[in-house]
Protein 1
Amino acid sequence: MKINHITLLVSDKEKAINFYTKILELGSVKIVNQKHSWINFGGSYLHITDNSGTPIKDSFYHFALEVENIDDYIEKIRKNGAEVDDSNNQFFVRDPDGNLIEFIDSNNSFFK
């Protein structure tokens, strides 16, 4: 079993797509229709939608993604314009709507 997709409610779909594909460099976009977009990353999808109400801002609700070299990834996305709060094999960023994303180094022993 694995996660197929994570759905995020956003206020500006194009701005969110730019953040996830250009700044975080997660993957490629598949547009389903005017309201839904899917970003392929690591064999799963991030479902971006703007048709289900108002995004919840600045909560601790989040999803976590594993990266192989967290230091290199932090450097790359900082160059792309991301604000990174980093510490000990993990870091957090917020998308333009305040959705929280955690990144964990693949060598983090927490889940091993």
Protein 2
Amino acid sequence: MSQTKILLDESDIPTHWYNVVADMPNPPTPPLGPDGKPVQPDALTAIFPETLIQQEVSGERWIRIPEPVREVYRLWRPTPLYRAHRLEAALGTPAKIFYKYEGVSPAGSHKPNTAVVQAYYNREAGIRRLTTETGAGQWGSSLALAGRMFGLDVRVFMVKVSYEQKPYRRSMMQAWGAEVLASPTNVTEAGRKVLASDPTSSGSLGIAISEAVEEAASRKDTNYALGSVLNHVLLHQTVIGLEAKKQMEKVGVYPDVVIASCGGGSNFGGIAFPFFADKAAGKKVRLVAVEPTSCPTLTKGVYAYDFGDVAGYTPLMKMYTLGHDFIPPGIHAGGLRYHGDSPLVSQLYHEKLIEAVAVPQLATFEAGVQFARTEGIIPAPESAHSIRVAIDEALAAKEANEPRVILFNLSGHGHFDMSAYDKYFAGQLEDYDYPEEAIAESMKKLPKVAG
């Protein structure tokens, strides 16, 4: 097969999202309140619209995509699927490497797939303002875009270290009209508490989430929007995998392995969950989540109930966690900074239905540069984690002299992340394994609940 770019028509944009809950062998673990009892859906109405809450707890296999959302999707969907001919040749591998490229969205990543949905449902519910957090800035810029499209004001609490490292992501949000604050801030009680104990705090997603949730809960005209982790977010991202399946069918191939970077889980769930439906039906396919060794949530974390934020405003979720007070090292330049993982991804990993691997920072950037020099696209550092493992899989196929079909999600471009590449080229980045003793210390602060 010599085709490089596999395209679909706008009429092929999925009409429904796929809900992996319908094919999981065990029901999802419920979120818990401070009393250790399951949280009832109506407890979430202070920060989410009713429709998203219904999707969060749904067990339906297919959920219809509203036509106004599909209309916005048409700006960039369906996204192209590429065959990485030049990378294959450079590696000398018998493997076929495919990548689904989400960098063609206006925000340059996969994140608008759910941002526009959340903005739409909030507008329909009469909400006029959204708050959120962002780490590397992909989510914040996507919600800023979505807010502009549906007439909502957006305030973004951006993790301070990223606010400083990624100024152009910040400019992007401001260009779409969002207000961007370096978290921790003095405008929320959660932020003031952190600054009182550590005035030089570099921030974390857990801190930024606390600030955004606190503000949303305090105003009737404001709701909170989350870019990963929750069930409804991963649901919206399945348009990626649904399109990829159709594109691979078009050229008569099926992946042996599906790979995606994993911070909170939306990138991975977006491309992998539709293939999990096949796996649940007996198809042989490996699904691999990739994370950094400096934030090894799945590979070194503990599977337990924990808060989604530092202040403990969120319900307790059963997930792989490094502890809700986890702060990633400042030298980590590749995003994927969250302390926990999606409860759905965590449960599937705990039940050994998916795989996870952690990769070091230098090898990740090396893979990103190799990809740029062969395929021409400069990947976001987050996306380069999946490239690293795709290359490793291709080299393993070469070593075994066996054909292998590899699919990975190229979740975004790196055009606004060049300062991280500058540091890599200058030799200023280093590998960092998050210490076991730091994880053990954080585990002492996990909430005491049954299960």
